[in-house]
Amino acid sequence: MMNIKLTAMFSKEDISLMKERGIDLNIVEEQLEKFKEGFPYLDIVKPATADEGIIRLNESQTEEFVSAYENNIHESHIMKFVPASGAATRMFQSLYTFMETYKGTDSDYSQFLTDRSFFSMYNFFESLSSFAFYNDLKNLLAEKGEDLDKLAEHQEFKKILEMLLMPEGLNYGTLPKGLIKFHKYEGFSRRPIGEQMVEGALCHKLKDKTVHIHFTVSPEHKKIFKEICNKEKKFYEKDYDVTYELSYSEQKPATDMIAVDMHNKPFRNADGSLLFRPAGHGALIENLNDMDADVVFIKNIDNVVPDRMKDQTVVYKKALAGILFHFQIKIFGYLELLDKPSSVEPETLKEIKDFLEKQLCYISPHIYDRKTKEEKIEFLKKKLNRPLRVCGMVVNEGEPGGGPFWVKNTDASVSLQIVEGSQIDQKSTKQKDIWEKSTHFNPVDLVCGIRNYKGKKFDLLKFRDPNTGFISKKSKDGKDLKAMELPGLWNGAMADWNTVFVEVPIITFNPVKTIWDLLRKEHQGYL
What we know:
By secondary structure, the protein is of the alpha/beta class. It is 36% helix and 17% strand. It is globular. The protein starts with a helix and ends in a 24-residue tail after the last strand.
């Protein structure tokens, strides 16, 4: 039944807009309540550390799990899932600022020469020829009768940046990050989409030589994204003897969230229409839920390396998947035992509970001990029969973002979660102290098992935590507003999954957040 209070708040046009976007009015009501109440903080108990929540592999174990993956890959449908919808705008933010403020005066140029740090504009222009897009920029300027080197020599910095960022040039400022040329090789250069394809060929080639990769893209970029992917995949198919099955999806409009003003009333655009905003990475659980696969590898579009550094990345991706297969065999075996309750002995229940606690790091609530045998069987079945994720973790070297923790749940159980800083009460001395003792960082390198022991695909939407999210202050048309976002796909959207954390080398984590990251030795194609 439609809420009378809500129908009074919204016009026919508002309700029509929601229907058009596939947004449920009752969901909007829940969001409006969340703006008033806020989201509860997570209760972190302790950081997950090596050998206490995070598996640390030695060389022989790594080889064993790599072999386990390679021996099982042909029996499974493997897919690579790459969130790639973000534009590269933030990557070039400092270049935009420089374009706006640099007027070419003697004072400007003197300041330009003074700061020669790694993240300086001086370093950017001095290192211009080291970027993979250098030749494209040089050739484009030549077509327009300009010489790139002479422009730099005459301090025509703004013109160079315009040709790099603006639509009349390479248009890098509005392209998705996946289409920016990252790595230079002898005679050619490669975009992140290309590096993801190569990694896919090395890691995920099936028996029939197919490699399945799914990109999530934004609507405005989908056409050019597909065009360039289809053009470039032909080179990699030939070089690596594979056939790429590429698929694409957009973040669903139905997952967008209503924005409110500072009084928690629906925010309206200048034309009076309601403002709905993308809900963040967490909304991609809907896209992941649509995947028809047994095992899905998840990795962000910008976390790629050139060929000379791929070996270790490939080894650890295979090892993570081998660990997934190892745990699935144990879990599926236990579930099959629990399907025959009459033959389940107390020792078996104890063994399964110990496996949950010691291997899957799920600490049952105290009420478990007071349950009957039948109740214990049902409880253990429910906890085992969940999607499984194996997550790579790197030693924290000061990177911002989420990390691995033991978290106390609302039912008094404790489980492993990837936690963002916005999810904990930073005003609590105890919680902040636990947060600061974290030793590892989430590099977004996951392998997910999304089918159950009977081969049926899980409905991933049933394993979300609806009380996970955060509210931030934004603005539009000069007016302040509040926006609601879900944390990363690997946070609240996977809160009720079985979770295994594994330490992976820091060398496997090389994201590109700013243009200067491409000048680091890890992103130079050949040295």
